[in-house]
Specification:
Elements (H helix, E strand, L loop, with lengths): L3 H6 L4 E3 H13 L4 H7 L4 H4 L5 E3 H15 L4 H6 L9 H8 L3 H10 L8 E8 L2 E8 L5 H19 L8 E3 L8 H8 L3 E2 L5 E6 H4 L8 H21 L1 H12 L7 H7 L4 H10 L4 H18 L5 H7 L5 H12 L3 H9 L6
Parallel strand pairs: 5-6
Antiparallel strand pairs: 1-2, 3-4, 4-7, 5-7
């Protein structure tokens, strides 16, 4: 049986190594030494080429921090996101490339997200003729990561549709602007808002249905089957990562119960319980730990209201969230945030 503290290590946010390889290649093209970048993340070249490897996302962030400093480039994530590279997302990039529409590509991304890691989750909210496509981070990510994700979505859509003017109606980032806003607006061709409640882009529903230039439904079916087989394998070899991803991406709409999670893992409820027991934990403990880490992450992103955080974590009432937070930290959400804003390192 895996010790409880070790089981919680499996809940640490991870990212697929092919995304890390993309960043290393990009930084190298801008003149940085490849070996220095790999050493910063304690990675070898052979690890960088292990297609199914997931690594601690903090190692990816370390490369961003080092490269941004060496290049004196605060917009490194924004610039990296503009690079069109289907292989950055492994099989999910190929699935998107052969899909019938942006909507179909996003549906596959939601379904197989854990293959790319569990550092965050996509969330789509429809309102009238517009859809908000959020990226909900599972950790206190840097601005580089959120800018890479959001910018990459637009770069991908422009290439897949062969429409250079494929642009959202608005873009939102939770962090403050670290460069002139007009630089971002020239790229996105729409208003860009910083210090927002979420990282997201808003797009017209009709644009989600635009046909893609490399649609190949037969190949897409094969790739989807391959992605499903990889997910099935991952459910047995790394179940905690799959569970975390599934919980994170569903919490904003509902709290998944064990029956639902077991069905997603293609296991009986009893088998899922045994699998969790092997890690010295239970589903209720895993759910509680995920909610706690997400709560701390969201509150560090200080533009998020306590009500917003409560809703994102699937609490029926804000008071229920406040009671849970007090149990986790022995303080209130408001006091925790004030500690962050005052620079209290203990928070």
């Amino acid at each position: 049986m895996v010790a409880m503290n070790q089981s919680l290590n499996y809940l640490q946010p991870k990212i697929a190594v092919h995304a890390v390889r993309s960043l290393v290649n990009f930084a190298e093209r801008r003149g940085l030494d490849r070996e220095v970048l790999l050493n910063e993340a304690s990675l070898s070249e052979s690890q960088l080429n292990e297609g199914r490897l997931l690594i601690d996302v903090r190692r990816h962030e370390d490369i961003y921090s080092l490269a941004s400093g060496l290049l004196d480039e605060p917009m490194l994530g924004f610039l990296h996101g503009q690079q069109y590279e289907p292989e950055r997302w492994g099989v999910l990039g190929l699935v998107a490339l052969t899909s019938s529409s942006i909507a179909a590509a996003m549906a596959a991304q939601f379904r197989f997200q854990s293959l790319s890691g569990n550092m965050g989750a996509p969330l789509q909210l429809n309102h009238g003729q517009l859809t908000t496509m959020q990226w909900v981070p599972a950790y206190n990510c840097s601005h580089h990561m959120s800018e890479t994700i959001i910018t990459g979505m637009v770069a991908f859509a422009r290439n897949l549709t062969n429409q250079a003017d494929y642009s959202p109606s608005a873009v939102y980032f939770t962090h403050p602007a670290l460069a002139p806003v007009d630089v971002y607006e020239r790229y996105f061709e729409c208003p860009v808002h910083f210090n927002a409640e979420h990282n997201a882009l808003v797009i017209e529903n009709a644009m989600l249905q635009w046909p893609l230039r490399k649609t190949d439904l037969e190949l897409n079916k094969v790739l989807m089957e391959h992605a499903q087989s990889l997910l099935t394998q991952q459910s047995f070899t790394s179940p905690m990562e799959v569970i975390k991803d599934y919980v994170i991406k569903n919490l904003p709409t509902h709290v998944p119960d064990l029956d639902e999670v077991a069905a997603y893992l293609n296991l009986s409820v009893r088998s899922a319980q045994r699998k969790l027991n092997e890690y010295g934990t239970s589903y209720s403990q895993v759910l509680d730990a995920i909610r706690k880490e997400l709560a701390l992450t969201y509150l560090r992103q200080t533009s998020n209201s306590v009500l917003y955080v409560s809703e994102r974590l699937g609490f029926s009432e804000q008071s229920a969230f406040q009671r849970a937070f007090k149990r986790w930290t022995n303080t209130t959400p408001r006091r925790y945030r004030l500690g962050i804003l005052s620079g209290d390192s203990s928070q």
